[in-house]
TrEMBL record, chain A:
It comes from Pseudoduganella armeniaca. This is Ubiquinone biosynthesis protein UbiU. HAMAP family: UbiU. [4Fe-4S] cluster binds at residues 178, 185, 202, 241. Belongs to the peptidase U32 family. UbiU subfamily. GO terms for molecular function: 4 iron, 4 sulfur cluster binding; metal ion binding; peptidase activity. The lineage of its organism: Bacteria, Pseudomonadati, Pseudomonadota, Betaproteobacteria, Burkholderiales.
Amino acid sequence: MTEPSSPSSFELVCPAGSLPALKAAVDNGADCVYLGFRDATNARNFAGLNFDEAAIAQGIAYAKARGRKVLLALNTYPQPGMEALWRGAIERAAGAGVDAVILADPGLMRYAAERFPQLRLHLSVQGSATNVEAIAFYRRHFGIARAVLPRVLSLAQVEHVVANTDVEIEVFGFGSLCVMVEGRCALSSYATGESPNTHGVCSPARAVRWENGPRGLESRLNGVLIDRYAEHEHASYPTLCKGRFDVADETYYAIEEPASLNTLELLPRLMEIGVRAVKIEGRQRSPAYVAQVTRVWRDAIDAARGNAARFAVKPDWMNQLNALAEGQQHTLGAYHRAWK
Amino acid sequence: MRIAVGPLLYYWPRATVMSFYEEVAAGPADIVYLGETVCSRRHELRAADWIAVAELLRGAGKEVVLSSMALLESSADVTALRKLAQNGRFEIEANDMGAVQLTDGRPFVAGPHLNIYNGGTLQLLHSMGARRWVMPLEMSRKSLEVLQAARPAGMETEVFALGRMPLAFSARCFTARHRNLPKDDCRFSCIAHPDGLRMDTREGQPFLVLNGIQTQSAAVYNLAGEYDALAASGVDVLRISPQSAHTGSIVAHFDALRRGADAAATAANVTALLPDAACNGYWHGRPGLELAGRAA
C-alpha cells in the first residue's frame, strides 16, 4: 500500500540527549532529532541528560531554523496513579510545537489522539509492534502516522510489514543492539527492580559494581555476576543480556555478544522496500559521538540516493562506526537471518 | 478466588501433553489456558489437537481460553493468529495487540504480555472487549491496588501466582544457539528441556532459564504465601504456570488455600515442589529475583 519511498523522503533520525547533541545532529545532517523530557516519561532517563522546557524551546528553534524536525519520545508506560505526569508531558509536547510524539502506551495514545487531534503520533519501539495486525490496531484506534519496528525482524519480514500497511515504517540503523523485543523485556527489573517499561532504564547504572577480584575484573548488577574479564579483554558495560554465563557446564555469551547493530550495508535495500526512516540509537552518548555517527550516515544516505545500484559501503565509514561500536564489533542483528 | 492453569510454556512430547491435561481435567482448576505461546516451530500438537484438548476440558467443566503467541514475526504467524481469533468456539487470550485487533469486539482475555500498566489502558482494553486482564509480571501489590480502584465494572483481574516467569522474548532462539544450531534448523532442541535450560552465573548462581526464544526467571515465582493479600486486593484468578512435575499437587495446594489452609505453611509445601528456589520480589516492589516479606 505504501508507495516506495522516494529517496528524498527517507529520513535520518538522530538521538539528542542534550542541547549540544541536538546541535551536533542538526549540524551534521540529521533530518529529525528525537529527545525526551528529564523525567520518568522518557525511556532514556539518565542523570544529567535530557530536556527541560527552555532547552526544548531552544532545540526546536535551532532545528526548525534549519528545516529539520523534532520528535519527542514519551516512551515509558505510565505507572499506576501517576498518569498525570505522562498526560502533562503530552500537553507540554503539544505546546512546545514538536513535529511528533513517540508513544508506547495505548491509554496515553488515546489521551493524545482525543485531546490533540492535530498532534502527529509515532508508535515507539517500546510498543512492541512486530506485525501488520498490531500496527493496524494502533492505526485504527489512534491514527498513528509511523511505527518504529523492534530489532527482531529479518529484512524480508520488514519488507512484508512495509508492503502491508499504510503506516510509515522506521527501523533501527545503528547503536546498541537490543536482543529482546523492546517493551516485552523485564530482565532488568528481575535483577534490579527497574526496567525500561517501569523506570525507563535497562541495567541501571546505580546497580552496577566493578570489582577487581583474584579471578580478574568483575562486573555485577545488584550483586549478580554479569561478567569477569581476563587481563587482555575489553570490559563492557554490564547489560545483563550481554554477559557470560554457564549453561550446561559451558561458559559463553549465552544470549548475545556485546556488539552494536549496524545496517549501513542494507541502506539501498531499506530505501527500495519503502522504509521511511532509519533511527540512530544513543541518547546517552556524547555530542561528539552523535556528530560522527550522523555525518557517516548522512554521507551514506546521500550516496545511496545518488545511485542506489552502485552503492558500496566505504571502508572509512565502517572504520569510523566500528570505532564507536560496543566491543568495537558490529552485527546486522536479526535483519540477517543467520543471526538467529 | 478461581484457579487457572496457564498456557504450557515448554515443549513436551505429545503424549506427555495429553496426559498432563487429562490430570488437569480431573483436578480442581477452574480455568485452563491452552496453546503454543512461545514458538511457532513447536508442533507436537497442531491447532486441531489443541481444540480437541479444549473440548475435553470443557466437557470436564473447565472454562477454556486459547492463548495467542506473544511474538508474531512472519506472515504465517499472523495467518495462524487470524484462525485462532476467529475459531468461533473459544475465547482467546491476546498476548499481542495484533490479537486484540483481530478479536474485533468479541470478548477476550488481555494476557500478561500486553503491558497494561495503568487505568487508562485497562479501561481502553475493556472498551475493546477485554473481560479479564492478567497483571504484568513485574507489577507490585501496591501498583495493582491502585489499578484495582480504577478497574471498570465487570473486568476480572488475574495474577501470575506460580511458576518460572516469562520475562523476555527475542527473535533469537537461545536453546538452538546453545547447540550452535541456527533457529531455522533448531532440531526442536527445546524438547530436551521440560522445564527450560538453566543459565547460571559464573559463580554458580541460578539466574535465568532459556526456553527457545523466551527467557524466564530461574527462580520460581510463588505467591502462595500472599494469598490473603491477593484476596484483599480483589484478585479474581490465580494463574499456575505448568511445570514438568507436581503441577497437579500445586493446584491442589492452591485449592486448599481457598478452603482456608494456612498460607505460610502452604507456601512452604509448594516451595518444596518447585524445580528451583522460590522468589516473590515483584509482589513486594523489589527486584523480581528476591524472596521478600513473608515466607514463600
